[in-house]
Amino acid sequence: MKKIDYKKLEISDIDINLFSKFNRYQDVKKCWRKENGEWILKEIPFVEQWNTDEYKFLVKCLRNTVNEGGAVFGAFDNDSLVGFASLENKFFGSENQYLQLSSIHISAEARGHKIGKKLFYLISMKAKKLGAQKLYISAHSSEETQGFYKSLGCVEALEYNLDLVSKEPFDCQLEYTLLK
């Protein structure tokens, strides 16, 4: 993998062709579940592989994010998208302290090259610039995904966004404090 190029995406950049070589594949073995107030790692095997309809829906969501003043960043290897992350522009929380990191995904073959870490950093800088105190992440509960977020310093959210919990009840609700 050569040098990865990162850029903020405009609406005109976001279409189904952007994802033509993107591989959202994950072979999940274990997931975190909260039982009786404690987090437990459980055997919950499944394979996640996005299809064309999911990519079409994603394009709609990412375009909407940009339309509403949020941001989408892409990571490119030889002009092929290998990672992306999105930040919504709707504050929430008891003190309007949160902005949501709504997605961060790395193509299967590009994982392990710190692309996700760089995208997380770009989103954090944008959220800070917009005035957020914390990022809010409704994150996949898989062992690998949670390990990624914990390595960056994310912790269980002090306040849960109940709308996001209702949409993805098995996600782990996380937050990341943006340093001043």
From TrEMBL:
CDD domains: NAT_SF (cd04301). It comes from the Bacteria. Pfam families: Acetyltransf_1. It comes from Acetoanaerobium pronyense. The lineage of its organism: Bacteria, Bacillati, Bacillota, Clostridia, Peptostreptococcales. This is Ribosomal protein S18 acetylase RimI-like enzyme. Residues 14-179 form the N-acetyltransferase domain.
